Amino acid sequence: MSGSSVGEIMWWVALPYLAIAIFIVGHIWRWRYDQFGWTSRSTQLQERKLLKWGAPLFHYGTFAAIGGHVIGVLIPESFTRWLGIPENVYRWFSAAAGTVAAVLVIGGIVVLAGRRLLVPRVRATTDQVDKVVLLLLLIVVLTGIAPTIGVNLFGHGYDYRTTVALWFRGLFVGQPNVQAMATAPLIYQIHATAAWVIWGFWPFSRLVHAWSYPLWYLWRPYVVYRSRTATAPSEPGTGGRKWRKIGSPY
Amino acid sequence: MRVMAQMSMVMNLDKCIGCHTCTVTCKQVWTNRPGTEYVYFNNVETKPGIGYPKRYEDQEQWHGGWTLDGKGRLQLKAGGRLKKLLSIFYNPDLPSIDDYGDPWTYNYQKLIDAPLGSPNPSAHSLSALTGKGMNMQWGGNWEDDLAGAPERAMEDPNFRGMQDKVKLDFEQVFMFYLPRICEHCLNPSCVSSCPSGAMYKREEDGIVLVDQDRCRGWRFCVSGCPYKKVYFNHRTGKAEKCTFCFPRIEAGQPTICSETCVGRLRYLGLVLYDADKVLEAASTEDEKDLYEAQLSVFLDPFDPEVQAAAERDGIPTDWMDAARRSPVYELAVRHKVALPLHPEYRTLPMVWYIPPLSPVSDVVQAAGYDDVDPDTVFHTIDDLRIPLEYLANLFTAGKVDTVRTVLRKLAVVRSIQRATQLGLEPKDNLPETVGASLDDLDDLYRLLAIAKYEDRYVVPMAHVEDAGALAAQHEQLFCSLDTEGGPGMGGTGPDVESFHPGSAPGGSHQFRDDGGRQRFNLFGWNGEGSTPNLFPDGGQRP
Predict the structure, then answer these.
(1) What pTM value is reported for the model?
(2) Which chain B residues are closer than 8 Å to A247 by Cβ?
(3) B438-445 vs B400-422: helix axis angle to the nearest 10?
(4) Predicted ipTM?
(5) Which of A167, B396, B475, B527 has CB 3.0 to 4.6 Å from A181, enough for a Cys bridge?
(6) Would you call A39 an interface residue with chain B, using a CB distance cutoff of 8 Å?
(7) For the segment B307-322, what is each residue's pLDDT rounded down to a tens digit?
(8) Residue among A48, A58, A232 whose CB faces B96 most closely
């Protein structure tokens, strides 16, 4: 961390740790106090034609993008070297696969964002925090796609695995390489910053539904029986469920 | 044998006048909230008609319920578990709000705010989804009394296989009402479709409920239910459904739709069934045998062996007693006059229907109608205005014989009563021709025509010793239903402790309203005795 200014440390060390702290504490709070609000808040009932394309494109594209980040950022370069994957093979693979994922995500987010802004029935269900998260997602996606396509596919390439990835992994072992990030191109910096802010907003938005992907449905018996016997009562205060106003008072 | 108890309902369609009182009271109690404007846990459909939501009975379109795979194994019609998880971002089988009807209200304020002038102000319709002006296109009750039938009624899925036979010309048209609630199935496909495991069937009474805290809004229950009786609250993003008024049932009271039914056509009671046989019955190969298969899972509460097994499986003795007095057991299992709605969905639905008799379509024949002679009684059954095939498509997966037998039995009950009233001598063999004794038919007459309150509703109370756990809920700072947008809607409801009709009339039904005035609680009044404070003291009008 030596040689970094206070501003750089605040930005590339304090902000990520703050985001992680909010992410963890926020989720514990939300899980304990707002089970009722924990939902995907699907708007398929209101609009289905656009959702049919937008939602699968966006979600599957995002899975691909997340997978790409795991390979590119979490797994060290030395590991792929050790596997015997040459640098240019890795680069072309990441550029090509990254471009496919980027196209899927951008296609999906354009449809979904357009739908959310332009279809009155969907727009009416949109929360303030939804708008913030959507804006952040747009920034993250655009600043993620631009270097993938512009630099890695068509340009000279930028080896983020020796800079951004070092800083990112360092955060989790308590030794973030601030200089590696502070000297990275601006577009990576914006990308990373917006991503951290999303982690901070995550527990307070509908994004929590991601953790409820119901994998165990594959194994559980079809019909669920439960005894009428009440379970432990939920904690006082959870009754203050707040929902947005939709349309006219009815 | 694994004995389970199921709270269930029979509706006598002969008596339904389509007044929608059940719908209104249900709506007021359960879905009078933002987010559920379009939701009717109870609705009354005019048949023939395409229903609410549109064409919900066509499972080739909506893929609700169960089907058999190539090897004869039961599987969800919408596909397996993996397919569900992969299509979770867009459910291809989910109806849109337009299939139910975009809910609307009116801009009443305009009537008040309009400036003085010669044209009368009108209250335009506003969408409850957007708050903007809209034109109504469809609604839960759009087809009431055959409205729009010339254009749409032939699209009723129950006309399958009889399109060329049926004419809906003015002189041949027929109709009847079909009140619908959740079927609280023995083999519920909504519960099986819920990826979160938030939906469950209660072990004690078989009521199917959605755990609002566990629902994550994946909406497969909505499409999985072939009756489309699970709804998506568009404001909370969670599924909701008919609760069988479980708070009332637990207190030994009938559901609100039953209690307020003007025609007194609903019956409530317990049925005991063998849970180990459910899967086998639902997997019956020929869908026309599904009705019989469903009957085979029910247990005779008078059988000592069943009684012993029930005791072993924890069914309380007063519940056993209620099962022996159950009108549902009488009508559906013993007399076999009540039929399940669409058994071909393989969910083993537990709301049963007594099919309606209707006027004889051939007027000439009706003139020579002699209802003490079985030959003519039975002949006319086939000439009823409502085609037997139509009823069969609704209630027996197309097996006409079953419906004919039921209608004959109902006709014979009438014939015998008519003969008794008029001092005629019915043909000796009349009861035997429908496989019943004179006593059986007399029981049926009492149950269907006299229909005393205590015979229609045999609802055993939830067990007090179990209620220790329930008390944990009462000790909360608030009622669990009493949340913004919840059914309680923040109001203080009637006192649960004094919520039993027949206990201390008037005495415990006093309460003080917000203004401090003493009032009388009509909810708990049994109709006897005085009603102090029901009306304010005279002479003090504000």
Answers:
(1) 0.85
(2) 126-132
(3) 90
(4) 0.86
(5) A167
(6) yes
(7) 999 999 999 999 999 9
(8) A48
